Every structure is written in structure tokens, then in C-alpha cells.
Amino acid sequence: MRLSAIIQLLEEDPVVGEVEGPVDPAAHFVTVYNPRRRDGRTVTFLDANIETVLIAWHRITAIQLLPQVEVEKAIGFVRE
Question: In terms of pTM, does the model score above 0.85?
Fold first, then answer.
């Protein structure tokens, strides 16, 4: 199950993307799917068509896992 996350990088803007479940601290890299900036634009140091990127742990200062939103709460009440 993919979780949305904000990855804080050393001397770079944060990257928002999805990770596969809780991140393994023993791994050398973190796999991030659909990397983008917080405002949805492409990350400046990546090509525009990148879908997956491996980020080395020594470049990461923190990873914030975002809470999962249930479908009913995300859609909200719709009046017909």
C-alpha cells in the first residue's frame, strides 16, 4: 500500500510523493513514486517525465507520512 509522504532533503525544497508502506531505515535508498513539489509542479532537479526516483538516505533529513483520507471524507456531502 502506497502512503503519501513529504521528504525533506538537505539543501533542497521538500519533495512530495508516494512510498511503499513504512520506509526501511536499513535500506540505502528510498523509492519515491510521482515526485513533485508541494504546489504540484515538477521538482527542479528532475526531468519532467520522471515517475519514480531513488533518493539516498544520506540526502534525507526527515520523512513525514501523511494521514490517509477515507473516500467518504475526501468527497464530502453532495446535495442533489
Answer: no
